[in-house]
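Figure 2 data, in text form.
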Amino acid sequence: MSEGAQHSKTFVTDCPGMKQLFILLELALQLRVPIMALYGESGVGKTRLAYALHTMTGSPDGYFRRINCSGLPEELLAQIIRTELGVLSFNRGEDCRNEDRNATRTLFLDEISDVPLANQRELACCIRRKISTHDDTQKIPGRLIVSSSWNLGDLAVSGHFSKDLYSCISDFTVSVPPLRLRRQDIPLLSRHFYHLIPHADRLLGFETLAGELESLAGYDWPGNIRELKNFVERRMLQAATHDCGDKTGKT
């Protein structure tokens, strides 16, 4: 089994598009592509995919830092990004003092489109300096992964995203398909989430849950995998509550 197939299995998928995506990501990792962009709707699993990319290098215990670009004040966000980028080298590891892959750091900028425009220009300049410089021998080999729920190319054309920053991060991009385009994964994912719940079979049989999901065959799951996970957890909570109510009524 190839590395890409292993990780597509980890992602609980039977979708040919997802399996092809992992083959593409495997190639990018072999080429030591230093900057990657993940596109996809909210809830498709971009954060988990970014962490999978980090672990696919063989460094699951290495440094992985996720920064939520929409959840921090502007000045604090800029300071954190400068600090995190400052210790990384994007020279694909050849010029770094420590070439051990376990030392590789991954910086994940989640929803980069929410970085203020002024900070985007500063970020672009910082990335360009790191790509062009070759004196990073005292720094740690690094990878920058960015994500967006929006098409950054369209935002750049409309003036809502820095064209400089877009050109820095758009060399390697992948789009994560929404759940409505990978419906064959719904039974697999729901079973996976079901078995994550302790003693799930005592609360509700999986066949009952699967039947309820079949009745939603025409539903588009706008919240994607996150919404499906929440549905399974909520349904199991309802079953547990009903079970407790029955027991209380019998006492």
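Caption note: Residues 1-9, 93-101 have pLDDT under 50 and may be disordered.
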